[in-house]
């Protein structure tokens, strides 16, 4: 803990004014979570738990914030009466932070935040409106490639599919172990998608080889990357309070290795990240603490990438006060892109 602990801020760190290097964006969004409850309370619980996380990062060799300025933005407040309106509101809220001068890390909330994040990233200087330049690296139990769930195409269970429909060039998935026949077909027929299934990476016999192949895949990444961490990708023993906990998932160290490998990829630049599907229960704080540690690892890995020259600001510093950039994409959609 730092000496000047600020409640509600990521790691309890004080705000250091106008020049920001990293922004934490709490998004207590929950409209379509199918099974568990309480992902709307996840961001605040995770931020509170982050106050207990050690500030020292072994790879960085320093205590966070390691000279960087980390801003915890006020939690997003949704007012829209429909899911589509809320998606537009989320995108409008996120876009001013996807401008290349700061590293944004969104904190969900359900995984349905991914499509609005993609809309916001379209304006990023390294994307220039063309999402085919972007690779998503996804840690998740679920493939999130459904065409719809309960009639809703923007359900959290469809998040990765909608990102691809919006034009994302490549999707790498790990931890996947709960998916439908339809999703298995999409995975096997769309060359943009590379999926590492948990039954392969977690196999007691051949898991090591599969894991090594995953890390090699990450090391060979090129161009801009968004890292999306659905905490249910980890084994349910580590995240019992997530929306839909699933056994047979990644270990904590596999999640850490994945984060480090993405940020260390020599020819790629991670431009943004999100950690999502954090919920709470009364029995144990392990879920939000696990999420807080993965967030901390993500921020530390970003700062290491800066130090090593794998991240540079692509626009001038814009300070802390930012006007919303209005999105009407989701409410104006009448049908989904053909695929
Ligand atoms: Mn997910």
Number of strands: 10
Shape, please? Answer: globular
Strand order of the largest sheet: 4-1-5-10-9-6-7-8
Strand content: 15-25%
Main sheet makeup: 8 strands, parallel
Percent helix, as a range, is: 25-40%
Q: Determine the CATH topology.
A: Arginase, Chain A
In N-to-C order, the SSE pattern is EHEEEHEHEHEHEHHEHEHH
Overview of this protein structure:
The chain has 339 residues and is an alpha/beta fold. It has one domain (19-332): 3-Layer(aba) Sandwich (Arginase, Chain A). Helices cover 30% and strands 16% of the residues. The chain is built from ten helices and ten strands. The strands form two sheets. An eight-stranded parallel β-sheet has the order 4-1-5-10-9-6-7-8, sandwiched between helices. The chain has a two-stranded antiparallel ribbon with strand order 2-3. Helix 7 runs parallel beside helix 8 and helix 8 packs parallel to helix 9. The chain is globular, with a radius of gyration of 18 Å. The chain starts with 21 loop residues before the first strand and ends in a 7-residue tail after the last helix. The structure holds manganese (II) ion. Residues 111, 140, 142, 144, 156, 159, 230 line the site of manganese (II) ion.
């Amino acid at each position: 803990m730092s000496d000047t602990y600020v409640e509600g801020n990521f790691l309890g760190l004080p705000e250091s004014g106008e020049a920001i290097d990293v922004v934490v964006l709490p998004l207590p969004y929950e409209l379509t979570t199918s099974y568990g409850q309480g992902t709307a309370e996840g961001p605040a619980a995770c931020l509170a738990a982050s106050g207990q996380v050690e500030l020292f990062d072994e790879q960085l060799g320093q205590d966070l914030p390691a000279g960087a300025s980390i801003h915890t933005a006020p939690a997003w407040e949704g007012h829209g009466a429909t899911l589509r309106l809320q998606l537009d509101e989320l995108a409008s809220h996120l876009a001013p932070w996807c401008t290349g001068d700061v590293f944004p890390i969104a904190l969900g909330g359900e995984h349905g935040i991914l499509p609005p994040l993609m809309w916001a990233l379209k304006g990023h200087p390294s994307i220039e409106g063309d999402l085919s330049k972007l690779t998503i690296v996804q840690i998740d139990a679920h493939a999130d490639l459904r065409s719809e769930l309960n009639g809703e195409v923007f359900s959290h269970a469809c998040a990765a599919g909608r990102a691809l429909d919006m034009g994302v060039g490549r999707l790498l998935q790990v931890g996947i172990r709960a998916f439908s026949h339809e999703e298995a077909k999409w995975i096997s027929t769309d060359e943009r998608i590379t999926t590492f299934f948990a039954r392969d990476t977690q196999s007691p016999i051949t898991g090591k080889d599969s894991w090594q192949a995953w890390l090699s895949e990450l090391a060979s990444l090129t161009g801009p990357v968004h890292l999306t961490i659905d905490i249910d990708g980890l084994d349910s023993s580590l995240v019992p309070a997530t929306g839909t906990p699933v056994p047979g998932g990644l270990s904590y160290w596999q999640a850490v290795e994945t984060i480090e490998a993405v940020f260390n990829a020599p020819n790629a630049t991670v431009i943004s990240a999100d950690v999502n599907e954090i919920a709470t229960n009364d029995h144990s704080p392990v879920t939000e603490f696990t999420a807080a540690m993965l967030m901390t690892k993500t921020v530390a890995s970003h700062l290491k990438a800066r130090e090593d020259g794998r991240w540079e600001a692509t626009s001038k510093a814009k300070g802390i006060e930012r006007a919303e950039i209005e999105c009407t994409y989701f409410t104006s959609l009448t049908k989904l892109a053909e695929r």
